[in-house]
Amino acid sequence: MKEINRDWHVADIKAALEKAGTNFEQLAKENNLAGSTLRNALRFKYPKCEAIIAKKIGVSPKVIWPSRYADKCA
Fold first, then answer.
1. Contact of 17 with 55, CB cutoff 8 Å
2. pTM (whole model) above 0.85
3. Are 17 and 24 in contact (CB under 8 A)?
4. Buried-most residue among 2, 7, 15, 19 (CB within 10 A)?
């Protein structure tokens, strides 16, 4: 189980995509993106690509990258 407020490890994201029957290259092609563009979400906030990855895994981007969506005003 993932620790609350801790971003998923890259290996966990890759594994979740594999369990969903895809990988970064295939998912990028399905969305008319370069694989490197989609993988940018692993390094920095990229809402469009985060949403694509999260949708395929079946969770919200906030679940995978809670640090990027944390309420900074709290």
1. no
2. yes
3. yes
4. 7
